[in-house]
Amino acid sequence: MLKLIGSRLATAVPSLIGVVIVTFMLTRVLPGDTAAYFAGPAATAESIAEIRTKLGLDKPLPAQFVDYVSALAKGDLGSSLSTGQPVAAEISARLPASAELTLAGLILALAIAVPFGIMAAVKQGSWVDHACRLITTAGVSLPVFFTGLLLVYVFYFKLGWAPAPLGRLDVFFSAPETVTGFYLIDSLIARDFETFRAALAQLAVPAITLAIFALAPIARMTRASMLSVLSSEFVRTARAAGLTDTTVIITYAFRNAMLPVVTTLGMVFSFLLGANVLVEKVFAWPGIGSYAVEALITSDYAPVQGFVLAMAILYVVLNLLIDIAYGIIDPRARSEA
Amino acid sequence: MNRREFVKSASVTAVATGAGVAAPAVFSSAQAQARNETLLIVSESGPNNLDIHGVGTNVPGYEASWNTYDRLITHEMTEKDGVRYYDRDKLKGELAEDMNIGDMSVTFKLKKNATFQDGSPVTAKDVKWSLDRAVSVGGFPTFQMKAGSLEKPEQFVVVDDHTVRIDFLRKDRLTIPDLAVIVPCVINSGLVQKNATEKDPWGLEYTKQNTAGSGAYRVTKWTPGTEVIFERFEDWKGGPLPKIKRVIWRMVPSAGNRRALLERGDADISYDLPNKDFVELKQAGKLNITSVPYSNGVQYIGMNVKNPPFDNLKVREAIAYAIPYQKIMDAALFGLAKPMFGAPADAQTKVAWPQPTKFVTDLAKAKQLLAEAGYPDGLETTLSFDLGFAGVNEPLCVLLQENLAQIGIKTTINKIPGANWRTELTKKVLPLFTNVFSGWLDYPEYFFFWCYHGNNSIFNTMSYQSAAMDAFIDGARAAAANGDKAAYDAGVKGMVDLAFADVPRIPLYQPYVNVAMQKNITGYEYWFHRRLDYRAFQKG
């Protein structure tokens, strides 16, 4: 297993180097002049030039690249111009916010989609199956910002059940002491149950929004893969041997159907990180996606590079986890790797 | 029952049952009290720097600086169309208790009891250091100081601990008003110098994150892109102590949610909602809506007069007659702007800016002018706008495109991202575009100097060159400095007439600053910088 992890990590190194080079080039090739943008509305040509020199943007590209890489080697991702903060600090402050939201959405989606998919497969053609089809179709076809705005409209504006969509905490609460960066966990560690309640209330609607989006692929994949497993011979054998329905479906069929579901899960997670950008915008969530988009709009290079790099590392870790999960679920995957 | 009502009733119960019974901590009356003294402002974007002297400080950053620092002088308040409005011509001391204007210098006596937020006294040394900093750091602050002929550190002289003299380089009417804008703020020099480094002698890195002023508020927490929290400075000497203890400024990117927050009563103030929302909120009548025209600001259609086809006056006139002015007012702005077109044919030119042109939509005349110009079959060009303000610019350009097509001008709309817009303007190659310019200093010659003068500043986006125009502008500036009213009036009328005759740019309208507030919020003041001044707000 360790050898597997080692070889996996080794193959990730060239891709990370590639990511560093490509993002650097891409941000430089993009139209838009950072210096002109930050010189402000009353800038003259001289003041733009002054700012360009201050930011080091007047140097030739290779020199800028060397500057960037040598800073990177020291763990310095540079500073964002639009927020004025070091990128590394901002990403580490914002990543937990995105991760908390994404994970909450994913867990919620899993809790609904997997049983739903299994039931749809077991009772193929029944009302459960049709309901599954209807919900998954709706889930994929509704854009997240739309579902988000709709939920805000209904639950906050009309019914008043949900708190104001103002980010992670109501303005009159202060954040719990940072341990993990996840407010739900940190507030429990601090034994501050009011803050926990408040954080949970803020999280509920955005997490549901993400879950609606993530439901569809998981439920469909569970259903399809359960169907193929249920029609295979070992299930027929198990049934013939007189095992109960629960044992056949959960122990035998579901375990074998899980591989494609786990693969989908990895994909859905990466989708969700993308969908996050929109959800973060709608709910004023101080996450990493909205940070990157704002930086991109203002041609602010450092955060965009930092964001892509952080995401690349996240993907490498995610893929590794999925590979390991494969090995746990299916012993055959271990030897093949 | 919604959450807000619950909060109210819970606090009422807590009061009614007396001190003996404690309500749950979340809904305590103390919290309700806090809400009463707290202002919650929501807007799309927040500051990137708390110091206006910083590199690339954005416009929301100006608001932070305005409320946390004092200047030597500031404007009095007056009333204009039912809104409290800064008085361009009346100044009063903020940190200064006395201002004495001589022939070639001005002397300020500082308030003796004024202190910075860390308790150290405000001295003449701090004033000089701050003004030196403004003219030395480069970029926008230095440029703004120059607009008032404040250019060299030698101009700022410490007379004694509480007296500062500013020497004039030349006579300039804008010198004194330029001392009341946001840039010449007074900074705690001792505190900043302690935190300055060799590479950063002016301590810009420190003031980026920390406020070091003597202003009415100080920033106690700033999470970039998320929120800024201001607390009142109890020993503020710049004016009467503000009523609001705490200001929470949250960034809510979605315009729909900002509106929902206002309508539900959770947010107190929002001031950058789309025009359509403002109109609907105004009609609903649940909120106080204030709309004030930008002082000295105009949205216009510009044309590059250096290159064909717009080097031809007849073509420019044809465009001016082809613009669907009223449709733009109705469909793109929902009426929230002041028209700058369609003045009666016999209207006299005023000594004022902005003022309306006499152009109206007349497609037949436009077509005829185009034929006279030698384009009977029309022409092709591109029409550019800044995507950063797409909410207004996009419908405006589409409406214009439709009308131009009717007189045979085929246009391709070129949407330029906000980050790129200024670069494109600096190149001065866009043939046809819409843009907005507004000046902090509300004087016609200031506007014309930047937008029409032959020295070709970045805002002369048309590359307009005219010796006659330069003579009018320079004449008006000189006349203003010497107090020669007749010459000044002639100069201003001359430049306005020439600008409307040569039409290098076609004024469309004066945009509005729109602010939506809860009914219990009072004290909104319009300032030349158009950002919020927290000091006068009251709640309840």
Indicate the topology.
The complex is a heterodimer of chains A (337) and B (540).
Chain A: H1 2-29, H2 34-38, H3 45-54, H4 61-73, H5 87-122, H6 127-141, H7 144-158, H8 183-189, H9 193-230, H10 233-240, H11 245-282, H12 288-297, H13 301-329, H14 331-336
Helix pairs in contact in A: 1-13, 5-6, 5-9, 5-11, 6-9, 7-9, 7-11, 8-9, 9-11, 10-11, 11-12, 11-13, 12-13
Chain B: H1 3-16, H2 29-36, E1 38-43, H3 59-68, E2 70-71, E3 73-80, E4 83-93, E5 96-101, E6 105-110, H4 124-136, H5 139-146, E7 156-160, E8 163-167, H6 175-178, E9 185-186, H7 189-194, H8 204-209, E10 217-223, E11 227-232, E12 246-251, H9 255-263, E13 269-270, H10 275-284, E14 288-293, E15 297-303, H11 313-322, H12 325-332, E16 337-339, H13 363-372, E17 379-386, H14 390-406, E18 409-416, H15 418-427, E19 432-438, H16 444-451, H17 467-482, H18 485-502, E20 505-517, E21 521-522, E22 525-526, E23 538-539
Parallel strand pairs in B: 1-12, 1-13, 4-22, 17-18, 17-19
Antiparallel strand pairs in B: 2-9, 3-4, 5-6, 6-8, 7-8, 10-11, 11-12, 13-20, 14-20, 15-19, 15-20, 16-20, 21-23
Helix pairs in contact in B: 11-13, 12-14, 16-17, 17-18
Query: Helix coverage percent of residues of chain A?
Result: over 70%
Strand content of chain B: 15-25%
Termini of chain A, distance in Å? 10 Å
Envelope shape of chain A: globular
User: For the record, what CATH class of the largest domain in chain A applies?
Assistant: Mainly Alpha
- In CATH, the homologous superfamily of the largest domain in chain A goes by the name MetI-like
Would you tell me which CATH topology of the largest domain in chain A applies?
MetI-like fold
Structural class of chain A: mainly alpha
Major beta-sheet overview of chain A = none
Helix content of chain B: 25-40%
E-strand count of chain B: 23
H/E topology pattern of chain A: HHHHHHHHHHHHHH
> Regarding quaternary structure, how should these chains be classified?
heterodimer
Largest interface: A-B, 54 and 56 residues
Can you tell me the overall shape of chain B? globular
